[in-house]
Amino acid sequence: MTTRDSHNLRPFFTNTLINTLQGGTLINLIATIGQGRKRLLEDIKKSQKRHVKILTADIVKYKNNYKGLIQTLWQQADNKGKSPTELQELIIRFEKTAQHIIILLYHFDELLNNAYLDKKFDVHFFNQLNSLKHQSKISLLCVTTQSYDQSMIFIKGKRPCYSGLNLEKKRLPKLTHDEIKLELKCRDLSLSSYELSQITWAVFSHAEPYHLLDFFSYQIKNKEDENVEISQRIKIWINQYREENHPVTTSHITALNQILNIREMGKGIKKPQTFVMLFLKSLTFFGCLFTQKL
């Protein structure tokens, strides 16, 4: 086990969350990209205790493969025999085991506001998930970027509707200065005290701190720009991170032009401030508005 693997990124929050899950709670963990959502699931997974089995699935891989999702959860539980083909059957079998089962579903919002799914992800599926609150041996954690109850589910041939899920909502807390500093120390990056301090503050102040921390770690280990003073290196790396992860493409420029052309279409928008607002909204929509502080 490496030094990085020996500790949790958010120790207090992770331990509290694990204890809550072991109590049989159904949770919606809400966090935007870049905050360390996947790392949290990895920390929960590695904390697995005796008589507790933690199962994980990335819904991105299974949104068009309902049977595959059921199969991977069954296989992770180390159960023998033929895999169930329905969630309800899976739940019944899990209830018969001596273990407490904790199911972690990453990118759960892939099943929400999405009309292009395996048809088995229907109202019945969400009702079955809801039924877990009556199962003493099974807990559930669904990771989404926004609260699940703000989204709809799409069933072929029917109007979009709310899922009916009843999950306890928890927001992933912002990484603290001390948590970032400890994580950097555990990665054996051979930083001086001054360099550690500068990088810690840059990561802490960023909109996507954990992703940036990963990026910085990669740059340092590969000795990128090692002869450049640390504050300048940080500026260079942040710009590189932005270019690699939030590029402004031709499609963004086209969208901006379409918005600005509204004025030419009749009613028009006369206030310059309105154009600025629309521009910013268009960038946000396409995922390329990127803010950071130093």
Secondary-structure element series: HEHEHHHEHEEHHHHHH
The level 1 CATH classification of the largest domain is: Alpha Beta
Estimated helix fraction = 40-55%
Q: What is the count of structural domains?
A: 3
Strand order of the largest sheet: 2-3-4-1-5
CATH architecture annotation name of the largest domain: 3-Layer(aba) Sandwich
Sum up the overall morphology in one term: globular
> Could you please say which CATH topology of the largest domain applies here?
Rossmann fold
The parts where pLDDT drops under 50 for at least 5 residues are: 262-266, 284-294
How would you sum up this structure, described in words?
The chain has 294 residues and is α/β, with parallel strands linked by helices. The chain has three domains: 4-171, P-loop containing nucleotide triphosphate hydrolases (Rossmann fold), CATH 3.40.50; 177-245; 250-285, no CATH class. Helices cover 44% and strands 10% of the residues. It contains twelve helices and five strands. The protein has helices at 11-22, 37-46, 59-62, 66-76, 87-95, 123-130, 177-186, 193-204, 209-221, 230-245, 250-260, 272-285; strands at 26-30, 52-58, 100-106, 138-144, 168-171. The chain has a five-stranded parallel sheet with strand order 2-3-4-1-5, with helices on both faces. Strand 3 (100-106), helix 6 (123-130) and strand 4 form a beta-alpha-beta unit. Helix 11 (250-260) runs antiparallel to helix 12. It is globular and about 60 Å long. The relative contact order is 0.12. Mean pLDDT is 86; it is low at 262-266 and 284-294.
